[in-house]
Amino acid sequence: MKKYNITVNGNTYEVEVEEVGSAPSAPRAAAPAPQAAPAPQAAAPKAAPAPQAAAPAGSGSVTAPMPGTVLDVKVAVGDTVSNGDVLLILEAMKMENEIMAAQDGKVISVNAAKGASVNSGDVLVVIG
């Protein structure tokens, strides 16, 4: 473990960083509990950028890539869709985003309705 001082918005925090790639040590992984609350906030932006795609999350489920509001649903249960077909329009950050099918198939279920608020990762449509 290495100790560093990090300054965020004029506040200085002492953080401990474990080097990844060396031999893992199980006892040290559980030790960081007594750290001050601001320290994880300083490290969080580095771990946060894990983009989530609107591609199938398993057996053809299309998920919301970001939180937003469903403006329009373009498909219904039983419709046949092709890869790239627009399934619905999602408004996020004042932009309209087309959520498209990532595979060919038949719409098994539509889990979002017009006007509904969705969170990132919510299943919107299932294609089989």
Can you walk through the features of this model?
The chain is mostly beta strands. The protein contains two helices and ten strands; from the N terminus they run ββααββββββββ. The strands form three sheets. It has a four-stranded antiparallel β-sheet, with no helix packed on it. Strands 7-6-4-9 form a four-stranded antiparallel β-sheet, with no helix packed on it. Strand 6 and strand 7 (95-100) form a beta hairpin. Residues 42-58 have low confidence and may be disordered.
Please summarize what this structure is.
The chain is mainly β and about 130 residues long. The protein is about 10% helix and about 40% strand.
Strand and helix map with partners:
Layout: E1 2-8, E2 11-17, H1 26-29, H2 38-47, E3 61-63, E4 68-73, E5 80-81, E6 86-92, E7 95-100, E8 105-110, E9 117-118, E10 123-127
Antiparallel strand pairs: 1-2, 3-10, 4-6, 4-9, 5-8, 6-7, 8-10
